[in-house]
Fold this sequence. Notes:
Layout: E1 3-10, H1 14-21, H2 27-30, E2 34-41, E3 49-57, E4 60-71, E5 75-81, E6 88-97, E7 100-109, H3 113-117, H4 119-149
Antiparallel strand pairs: 1-7, 2-3, 3-4, 4-5, 5-6, 6-7
Protein name: SRPBCC family protein
Amino acid sequence: MPTAEVHEHIDCPPQDVFAYVTDPHRLPEWLNTVLEVQEVRPATFEQPGQYISVSRFLGRRFNLTFRTVLGAQPLTILAETSAGPVPHSWHYTFTPEGSGTRIKLIIEAEPTSFFSLAAPLALNLLQRQVQTDLHTVKHLLEAARMASASPV
């Protein structure tokens, strides 16, 4: 099973980063491949959630249903889909690092059809895109933190 791993440091507390990343309605703000999201059932620490994502990857449009599971110690989210041409899972871990947060993301994919032939290329492209997406989270959250800390 192809796997990719990316990391990013964000100068915001883990609970703030976790709250932002786990809000499905915010996904189009920072996940470049996500066009829109419909939440079916919100995730809690007690109950898995579900949302439908309309995404574009390698020029193709996909409707994917994700199941999400939240964890508290450490803060984690697992988002997985078993449908579509590339069933995959995203496992985020949010840990304190200095005065901020270290996000670690592991993506595991099980390519089918055309994507099984292009798996190494697709995974490499996805890893670069996800690193860019996490950098976008960093930029958005750190800018918001700076703006709220600025005297008016």
